[in-house]
Amino acid sequence: MFFYIIRRINLLVITVTALTVIGFFLRSRVAGDLALEGNLFSNYFDYLMAIVQGDLGVTSGTGQPVLDEILIVFPATLELCFSAFILSIAVGVPIGTIAGMQRGSSLDSTIMGISLFIFSIPVFWLASLVMMYFALNWNWLPVTGRLNLLYEIDSVTGFMLIDTLISDNPHSQDAFYDALKHLLLPTIVLATVPTTEVIRQMRNHVSDVMKQKYIKAAASKGLSKTEIIMRHVLRNAIPNMIPHLGLQFSTVLTTAMVTEAVFSWPGIGRWLINSIYQQDHAAIQGGMLTVAIFVVTANVLTEILTVVINPIRRKELYAQS
Amino acid sequence: MPNLNVFADEHILSPAEQTWKHYSSQQIAMAALWALGLLFFLLVFAPFIAPHEPDLRQAHLLLQPPSWDDKGTVDYFLGTDDLGRDVLSRLLYGLQLTFGNALLISFIALIIGTTIGITAAISHGLLSSTLHHIMDTALSIPSLLLAIIFISVLGPGLDHSLLAILLASIPQFIRGVYLSVYQELQKEYIIALKLDGANNYRIIRYGVFPNIIETLVNLLTRAISSAIIDISALGFLGLGAQRPLSEWGTMLSGATDLVFIAPWTVVLPGLAILVTIFIVNIVGESLRQSIIAGID
User: Fold this and answer.
1) CATH code linked to domain A71-320
2) Rounded distance, CA A178 to CA A165, Å?
3) What is the Cα–Cα distance from A315 to A307, expressed in whole angstroms?
4) Across-strand partners of B80?
5) Nearest-CA distance B195 → chain A (Å)
6) Of B119, B105, B133, nearest to B222 (Cα)?
7) What DSSP state is assigned to residue A30?
């Protein structure tokens, strides 16, 4: 167990080092930003020191420190990702369970067929269509951004839903609903592909559990179907889902970058893509490091969490070492 | 000719025949296979089928509706876009740019990834452990993000985006092949082969390979569909293929504001991406199940 965690943290360190090398390369293209005397290694070391102190350079677009800008845009992305992630689990887990319980039935093949179809939809296309029709043509929901400009909300946490709730603005209630409305369309679009993945994985795990003998034993004891699902099936299937969910989160984060570009969501994806257009190397370096390190850390944490939560995985590890 | 098989000996189907028998019994899978065949045909013969040059602008034929519309003409079967270019021709050439490149990338990644994966699985010690670590590193970052990182270093462009997607999809193959070869090597029939004096090549060729085809099909399906998505997403974001190339994502990126006056310019490229990925996925998934059924 201890060695396992050491191995994972080792992996984290190697990955982050590899990323900082790319970052260093990008940053050294910014003229006059890093003092380029001395050899490559001492320059790299200086760069690492600067990152550790939170100095990611200055954007060439606005002249602001890169870190300050990232602290504004990254929470917006995370808010979008979390809500899409929660939505995909809330929809995917029950549907996947239903399909897995009746594997091979016509209901199962219908669900899997539809989810394969939805999986094939290119997200930027869906985003454009949804935005054009729901927001522009039918005027049901706001088109772009996170909040109507009428409301003046101070950024405390960077998460708009929380900020509007704790704000002392007299209209904070209305602002909250407005923020929710802005969040709705991007969330649904972003959640489509992950939902189909959750359905697929959940269905496989549930049907694996259904083949086990303890399910038969539980059924012969006279437990009702709901009791079997609640007590045995879900409890054994959900721990196996955690590694998939961890991977899903990084997929959501990347897909969010595309979704943001369509919905003009002021998140890190749109910001990073704009920086690439403008060849703003300091900003690219900072944005890339932030997103990649976040993804890698989240993955390593999920892997460790899997082992901690799931006794079966732990047993495998003990057998290995 | 009369049936000369007087003795009732049963013809035992080989695994490949079993697989085909299982596959051809599924109607949807067969339909998808025909559709895939059609896509290949269009891919190869696109320049001959396309009625017009993809970049030919005709100022007097802006936003011509498709032929089934009252105002449409058969000459421009799927209508024209806002610069008077024939949408059907652009879609056909786009098939080469999006689907063709995705196939190319996936097969190159398959060859490189499988070679490295098998090498890693049969080697021991430092090489295996190093490969394992590098793969874990590269895999923990999603392919589109990896591609965006590469492009941020290399700069936008179709070639760069293809290179980036290729580099991003190789680790998936290495990891998948490594794991399944490694699991096969633990099994007893491999030990039997070794006791028979088989060398590494024969163990891999006759022992392991027939049993990892299912994994390869699965990995290839995923790689092709994610390559299509990534190529078109990068094209859409303006980081991949640049205008006036008729890559499907690039076609969409300029056209979304036309959705109300000329819906065909927006709906058709997106549908093309959707249908292509859907067909690839159905064929891949059914083939995988048939291979499993063939081995059993």
Assistant:
1) 1.10.3720.10
2) 11
3) 9
4) B86
5) 26
6) B105
7) S
Residue from B137, B150, B152, B289 whose CB has the most chain A CBs within 10 Å, to mutate? B152
pLDDT in tens, A116-173: 999 999 999 998 888 888 777 777 777 777 777 667 777 777 777 777 777 777 777 7
Token pair recorded at residue A10: 């080792």
Question: Is residue A114's pLDDT more than 70?
Answer: yes
Q: Residue B241 CB: number of other CB atoms within 10 A? A: 29
A interface test, pick of B149, B265, B275 with most A CB neighbours within 10 Å: B149
Check CB contact of B186 with chain A, cutoff 8 Å. Answer: no
CA dihedral of B99, B211, A112, B172, whole degrees rounded to 10: -50
DSSP B112-139: HHHHHHHHHHH--THHHHHHHHHHHHHH
Residues 277-296 of A with CB under 8 A from B: 277, 279, 284, 288, 291-292, 295-296
CB A141 within 8 A of CB A185: yes
Give me the residue spans of the domains in chain A: 71-320
Residue in A26, A106, A121 with CA at minimum distance from that of residue A66: A26
Cβ-defined contact of B151 to A121 (cutoff 8 Å) = no
B-contacting residues in A 260-279 (Cβ below 8 Å): 261-262, 272-273, 275-277, 279
Angle at B32 between CA B68 and CA A192, to 5 degrees: 80
| Smallest CA–CA distance from A250 into chain B, residue | B142
User: Which alpha helices (H) appear in A167-267, and where do they start and end?
Assistant: 172-210, 213-220, 225-228, 234-263
Q: Where are the alpha helices (DSSP H) in chain B?
A: 15-24, 27-49, 87-95, 101-122, 126-139, 143-154, 158-185, 188-195, 200-202, 209-237, 248-253, 263-295
Residue with tokens 């890190």: A268
* CA distance linking residue B166 with residue B104, whole number of Å: 9
Question: Complex ipTM, two decimals?
Answer: 0.83
In whole angstroms, give the CA distance from residue B158 to residue B242: 7
Contact B137 A18 (CB under 8 A): yes
What's the pLDDT score for residue A321? 47
Of B153, B238, B275, the CB nearest to A277: B238
CA A114/CA A98 separation, integer angstroms: 14
pLDDT in tens, A176-196: 888 888 888 899 999 999 999
Q: What secondary structure does DSSP assign to B29-61, as a single string?
A: HHHHHHHHHHHHHHHHHHHHH-SS-TT---GGG
Q: How far is CA A91 from the centre of its chain?
A: 16
- CA A261 centroid distance within chain: 16
The DSSP line for A259-301 is: HHHHHT--SHHHHHHHHHHTT-HHHHHHHHHHHHHHHHHHHHH
Contact A295 B142 (CB under 8 A): yes
Tokens representing B162 are: 């293809």
Distance, in Å, from the CA atom of B81 to the CA atom of B63, rounded to the nearest integer, reads 5
Q: Which domains does chain B have, with CATH numbers?
A: 24-49+59-293 (1.10.3720.10)
Contact A84, A194 (CB under 8 A): yes
